[in-house]
Amino acid sequence: MAELEGRLTACDGCPGIPDFLGRYGTAGTRLLVSPICSNAKQLDPAGLVPEAALGGAVQLWEWIGEEAATTFSY
């Protein structure tokens, strides 16, 4: 992924995507990757960053539990 570092940015002046994802790991955050999207793009789950796992709505709600939470989906 290092060879792609310069191309993996969302915008000029934004941190690179690997750096951005690393910040999530440092903060102890977990990333859920949609299995539907992953399958549609034929992604290998073994290639996910360590903070990521395949999971859909059920896993998201189980993780959230009874407390209020903020989620991002795009």
Helix and strand arrangement:
Elements: H1 17-26, E1 31-33, H2 35-40, E2 52-54, H3 57-64
Parallel strand pairs: 1-2
Summarize the structure.
This protein is an alpha+beta fold and 74 residues long. The protein is built from three helices and two strands.
Rg (CA only): 14 Å
N-to-C order of helices and strands: HEHEH
Spatial ordering of strands, largest sheet: 1-2
Q: Determine the N-to-C terminus distance.
A: 22 Å
Low-confidence segments, given as residue ranges, are none
Structural domain tally: 1
What's the overall geometry? globular
Q: Which structural class is indicated by helix and strand composition?
A: alpha+beta
How many β-strands, per DSSP?
2
Helix content range: 25-40%
Q: How many helices does DSSP assign? A: 3
Mean pLDDT: 79
Determine the strand fraction and express it as a percent band. 5-15%
Largest sheet: 2 strands, parallel
List keywords for this structure.
32% helix; alpha+beta; 74 residues; globular; single chain; two-stranded parallel sheet
